[in-house]
Amino acid sequence: MVGVIGDIHGCFHTLHDLYHKVEDKYPEAEIFAVGDLVDRGKFSLETIEYVKRKKIKFTPGNHDYMFAHFFEHPGSVFARTWIHNDHGPTLAAYEFEPEKVWEHIEFINSQPLFINHEDCFISHAGFSSFYKRNLPSGYKNNLDEVGKIINEEYYNEHGVMWNRDKLLNLGKLQVVGHTHDVETRFDKRSNALYIDTGAFRGNKLSCAIIEKSSIIEIISVETDHRDIFGGFLKKVVVK
Fold this sequence. Notes:
It is a single chain. The chain has 239 residues and is α/β, with parallel strands linked by helices. It has helices spanning 12-25, 44-53, 62-72, 77-82, 88-93, 100-109, 144-153, and strands at residues 2-5, 30-33, 57-58, 114-116, 121-123, 174-176, 185-187, 192-194, 204-211, 214-222. It has one domain (2-226): Metallo-dependent phosphatases (Purple Acid Phosphatase, chain A, domain 2). α1 packs parallel to α2 (44-53). The two termini are 25 Å apart.
């Protein structure tokens, strides 16, 4: 059994509340996240610190890579795109602890682009049906070829960082973020669950409880407005 959390986007207080709600009800569940830990919300630094402390495994999202590339590879597409994608709150979050930037970049880079768990297949934006033509007929029985394509094509418009295509049915439940909505959405044809419920927009952060590709429950908490609205940026203690 796993719990998979949607796009957090610097909403530290909201993540804290959701994590403990899930932990209280499903203490045996291993917790994952679909990336986009940073940007938009006010507490990107604290969010990453919390994910590290709680040992939440995640697949980096495009915002995480934009942040990392801005410092590591400033000429890359990811770095150039970050300037136009809510980078300001993230830079502000590191104002008082700039030494954490490289530590967090290393942490982001250490995470896999996908997680092929026995209960579900996790990535940020999902595996596009665009790549079906590149797969052998029996790909559902062995997803190694899917993994190779993900690792080779992550940067392009159909890859797991940016994809907005129809997802390919992999023979097990795909759990993805990136495309937000007011509620989680299950696409039966693709066997895919979209788990981003717009925490940064003031809606809610959601976690899907999954076992053997079955959705047991969706647990959500409303966005804590301290994460996104008004006020000056304050240092919070990560517990």
